[in-house]
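can u do me a favor
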């Protein structure tokens, strides 16, 4: 069976840019059906009668600019993946663009990078919108809502933001402040003196880490105590934080960019968000999946796929997608157990989160965890990172709170 071609629409007012893209992407013509338009309103006209899988738009254009265009596309065709071509300095994850841009592509871009980004986004979308996943997600009457406090923080970030304001919002919520203070004072940050003020904690941790912490704490703290105990949720939260911190340390040691480091930290903290859906919507099936996984030594996500039809990783991806998080984070969460499926054969945020997660599961197994498989050596070899493994493992730091069995 031949795979259906993906339809991609490119919009740029500069004819040279479009011609360049056309030449550069010519080798993709067997997989992609590409169209090129110079005016944003023309893009909307062609979209009115043809479905596009992806739109790649320039930011600055006369008349309707790229953000206005992508905003309209989001409203009318929410399934179309929206890329923004822009100069590095113009890229922002805040304000108007945050709501409508899935991912930025830096100008000037090379063919390999562009092909890679678009193909990965398509693979991710196909996975999250597969018939089975869509069926299950749409059958759930409600999905965890974004915590109010997160929305408040995001609104501030859209305007002239200061860490002080974010710290003040967090300080109003006792549970949230104590979680954040616990992280900032943990061994990961190697502090000898105590930080007791949420405002200092925000400055110290950085806004991206705070955003991820606010999101996980916001959803997990809503669970009734009995359910939280049944599924060892505080151990799960500790695991997520450690994975985020280890992912950050790996990025640092590999001298990755600040953007990679921030995305990997956020994705690490959020990688198990989908378990929240299993715990609230499929508690018995999930409990059974954990028990079977331990019993038969099969990874828990495989059993979830068997019993429920979808894995916590895919559900997490859907949730983060619904919340409008950037594609890199959704991708890292969706593929955190099977990064080789994401169509990226380079070392990236997805690989970092995979590695950090495996290391943490190997070294401390939460009481609510299923059986955990070994690292995929072949995958590490393919990416050329096999020799880094032991060094990363040594960067893992001990845990501080109960509900764990030490296994490493
Ligand atoms: Fe997981
Ligand atoms: Fe995990």
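np, heres the sequence
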């Amino acid at each position: 069976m031949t795979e259906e071609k993906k339809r991609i629409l490119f919009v740029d007012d500069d004819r040279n840019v479009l011609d360049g893209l056309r030449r550069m992407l010519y080798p993709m013509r067997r997989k992609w059906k590409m169209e090129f338009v110079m005016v944003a309103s023309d893009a909307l006209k062609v979209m009115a009668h043809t479905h596009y899988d992806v739109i790649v738009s320039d930011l600055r254009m006369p008349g309707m600019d790229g953000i206005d265009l992508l905003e309209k596309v989001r409203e009318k065709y929410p399934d179309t993946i929206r890329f923004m071509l822009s100069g590095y300095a113009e890229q922002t994850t805040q304000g108007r663009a945050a709501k409508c841009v899935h991912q930025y592509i830096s100008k000037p871009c090379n063919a390999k990078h562009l092909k890679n980004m678009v193909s990965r986004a398509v693979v991710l979308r196909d996975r999250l919108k597969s018939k089975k996943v869509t069926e299950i997600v749409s059958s759930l009457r409600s999905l965890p809502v974004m915590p109010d406090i997160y929305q408040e923080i995001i609104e501030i970030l859209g305007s002239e933001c200061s860490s002080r304001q974010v710290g003040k919002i967090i300080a109003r919520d006792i549970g949230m402040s104590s979680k954040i203070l616990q992280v900032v004072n943990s061994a990961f940050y190697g502090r000898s003196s105590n930080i007791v003020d949420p405002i200092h904690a925000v400055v110290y941790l950085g806004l991206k880490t705070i955003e991820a912490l606010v999101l996980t704490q916001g959803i997990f703290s809503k669970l009734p105590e009995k359910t939280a105990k049944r599924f060892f949720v505080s151990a799960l939260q500790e695991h997520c934080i450690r994975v985020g911190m280890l992912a950050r340390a790996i990025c640092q040691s590999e001298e990755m960019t600040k953007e990679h480091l921030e995305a990997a930290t956020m994705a690490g903290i959020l990688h198990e968000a989908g378990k929240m859906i299993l715990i609230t919507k499929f508690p018995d099936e999930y409990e059974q999946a954990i028990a079977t996984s331990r019993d038969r030594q099969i990874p828990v996500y495989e059993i979830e796929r068997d019993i429920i039809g979808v894995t916590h990783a895919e559900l997490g991806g859907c949730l983060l997608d619904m919340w409008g998080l950037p594609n890199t984070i959704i991708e890292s969460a969706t593929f955190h157990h099977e990064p080789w499926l994401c169509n990226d054969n380079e070392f990236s945020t997805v690989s970092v989160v995979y590695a950090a997660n495996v290391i943490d599961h190997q070294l401390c197994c939460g009481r609510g965890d299923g059986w955990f498989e070994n690292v995929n050596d072949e995958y590490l070899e393919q990416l050329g990172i096999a020799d880094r493994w032991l060094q990363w493992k040594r960067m893992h730091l001990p845990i501080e709170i109960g509900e764990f069995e030490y296994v490493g």
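The beta strands are 6-11, 32-37, 54-58, 81-86, 103-106, 364-366, 404-406. hope that helps!!
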